[in-house]
Write the structure tokens for this entry.
Amino acid sequence: MSRLSEPRSITLESCSTLGLRFALVLFTFVVVLFAQDHDENFRKVREDMVRTQLAGGSWGVEALRDPRVLGAFREVPRHRFVPDALVRHAYEDRPLPIGYGQTISQPYIVAKMTELIEPKKDHRALEIGTGSGYQAAILSRLVTDVYTIEIIEPLGVAARERLAGLGHRNVEVRVGDGYYGWPEKAPFDCIVVTAAADHIPPPLIEQLKPGGRLVVPIGNPFQTQRLMLVTKGNKGPRDIRVRDIMPVRFVPLLSGSSGQ
Amino acid sequence: MRRREVVLLLISAAVLGDEVVLVRAFSIGLWHHFAYMVISVALLGFGASGTLLAVLARRKTSLDKQGRGAGWLAAAAVLFALTLPLAFALVQTIPFDPFLIVWDRRQLLYLGCYYLVMFVPFFAAATAIGLVLITKSEESPRLYFYNLLGSAAGAALAVGLLEIAPVEQAVLAVAGLAQGAALFALLDVVTVHTARRARLLAAVAILAMFTLTLHFTTRPPVVRLSQYKGLTYALNLPTACLLATRTSPIGRIDVVESSAIRQAPGLSLVTPQDAAIPPQYGFFVDAETAGAITAFDGNTTALGYLDWMSTAAPYFARRDSRRVCVLGAGGGANVLLALRHGAQHVDAVEVDPNVVEILRKDFHKFSGGLYERADVHVHVAEGRAFLESADGQWDIVDISLVDSFAAAAVGLGAVNESYLYTQEALATYLQHLRPEGVLSVTRWIRTPPRDEIKLFATAVAALDGMGLNPTDRLVLLRSWATATLLVKREPFSAEELNGLRRWSEERLFDVAYFPGMGTGEGNRFNVLERDSYAQATNALLAGAARREEFFREYPFFVTPATDDRPYFFHFFRWRALPLMLSKAGVAWVPFVEWGYLILVATLLQSAVLGGLMIVLPLTLLRRKGSCHPHYSRGSRLLVLAYFLALGVGFMFVEMALIQRLVFFLANPVYAVAVVLAGLLLVAGLGSGWAARLVAHGHSVKRLAFVAALAVATISAIYALGLHPALRTLLGLPLAARVAVAFAVMLPLAAMGMLFPLGLRHLGRIHAELLPWAWAINGCASVVATSLATLVALGAGLAVVLFAASACYVVAALAVRQWASAPVP
């Protein structure tokens, strides 16, 4: 601790002249003011995102209702989870590339997945595929503990630092293969699998609590076609239902078809 | 053969070779539909060269001087030789990613850069070819012969090169051809010009080519893989290791080892722990996931996981499964499944010989010598063709997930022909079943359902066509990710149905259709908001009228594919588009059949740009004012009609024949090589023959008229009878089929006569319009390529051939009008 504070005091004392000291103080003030203004701007954009993309039910999608989920989206600074070059697009209604062939999903898709797993305050959540850490950050506002596993090391390490830096103390990031879940922390009330291969790993179903919910997006990184919601009932390990949910309302199109 | 003819021959060979190699390179790095779009636009260089030639023609006297002509030809040839490899290397540095195109406007800029970079070499080559043909229009039939001969050789050579070398090296070899052409062109200049300046420039050009060659041979360009391709993703996994890579004209195959690779499409959510997936190596075709090679030690009890996928259903319907045929065997998962269920004779049919090689040689030990077992009979063949010409009968014919999930999910295959899933194909499979045998076809599920519904409809049509009642001969099961359709020639027995019912329930698979299915029996475990399966299967089994009504109303195109319209993957309907856009805004993006939209985009771009390139030279020529007043609007129209008809007609015949002969030759490599090279060769021969006939004093007009009518007649005959005739000959050995294919193409030699005869005639009456004719033909060929595919998708291959026939009738009519043209 002392070693960290030492250089700062040396710097200040070395500013021998009053003028220089004044300039430094002024500079710091401007930076802080600018940062506040910057964050204030983002807060407004974020509010817009929640209002129009999530709660508004635009382009035929179902509006999201859960006030806790909407609250989490108001709080978490999405722009801190996207690459620097894309910060200005952070709150747009689109997925963004984060490198290694991975993306941070559209806000609506993240929100819809979050709502589907019905997170409660006392819940324990598992996420497979941390990516940027945005989904974990959202979950950390809604449940007690979040355990998240990322297979690609640079992404996992960056997400861990980012989440810690933003004060998400109830998130634990592990770099590794998420196929076998996190048995030491199992069972989980809710599981989000953002990196699905051609099947849902059966060990994850086993680590789901009775009454628990698991969600998997299907499609390529830029085109979430459907969300699979797996729910586990209380009647034993085979009491499982999968619901196939289209994140967008394709139903109007189908209702024009026969047999309706 | 004179120097200029050698230049023409080599440049033509390099252009065709470059096209073939580029399609391969772009298919690996991006996706082949983008490859197709980029190359289509780049080929408009042929149209654009017409504009340049028109500019040069304004200074006609300068071109006529042999020295100037030779100079321009050398400049174009050198530019081509330099930019061919440079463009290839340069596009690998452009960060274009088709996935992002909807979201990121910058991607359009990158795409534009792709076009621009790829355009330059084709433009240069087209200018060189056009210069030779136009400045010597009197000799055009003979010159065109060399042009086509070179193209044919280039196509064949490129396929041969890709057999032995990766694309990166193949492109350098093709560049070698272009450099050869440039050297001959420079030699021509040096012989004609004695000035020191000419020699100096030639020396500089040779030095530049030499330096470039040296650079690329020491540091060959590497194809940039999109970060969203399966292979890139797999290589990012921890402890990932690329174990093997093999290339061929069919595709590049990569095998990757990583502890995180596990392939089990649609594995049941309740798969027990003792049915864990054994170690696997990831298997990639053109850098896209294509299954896995599974560790096998001869003990099939360790393969329990295979029973927990919907693909295993046929083995629980038919207990006696001694003789099994697996179409699209790939990494061998379904061969293992057959062995696990006691098959004593498995026919594994795989189209790519490299896949078989890789399992036999590189992974012999890992795969337990799977493809060398006495009970596994490997056939390198296309699945449909194998069964068409096979004698035996099987207990189970299995076609599972032949295309990758990534490709299927975004509808990339939408415009590809496939004779595997047509109504006639399903009938063939059923005829090769033992009386109690089962045909099993598994596809990825998409929401809203498409593939499975179309497959079901196709099976209904096939059974109907065989006079069998489909109601009690079909079963459709689905997991959350895959759907398996079982079809029998005999009705399913109650015992079989009960077995299947229990089996699917145990795995939480849903019954989408079962004979005598009760209400509430489907949509239980994998619950859809709306049970489209029940609605669709009910409608499809409720008689022809109801079925037709369903086809009309369903938002996707699910009418069964036939051999005439072999586009199983084509689901797009224009009718659904406005509804999609109005109801879903940008949310329609995931549901688009990308392959189809890219095709439309290609057509629109090439039509607009091509149109521009047709108008531009004409405007330039007209600005010449009073020097060339003697061509009228009528003669311009005549030139336009004639060369447009030829450009479109030629490509329509070519595209239709390729798709017909792909079926007949049953091997994508032979088909493309034989048809592309063969058609160009016979057309070249036609051109050469025309040159001789003209030299012997035959009338050009008469010759052109007869040739046009001959092609029109042949196309019409092929539209009606080619496919049925070829189908009866499918049993012939490959060499004989190649000979038949050549026999089919030979009468089309007449196609090669028309273009040079037209040029020769035009050269005599309106030589200044020659660049324009060149531009028209170039643009029409490019536009016609995508147009042919669209017509085939919408109306069938027969209609494409009829349209080609109509084009040649137009050409014949135009020739009739030649008589009235003023002769200088």
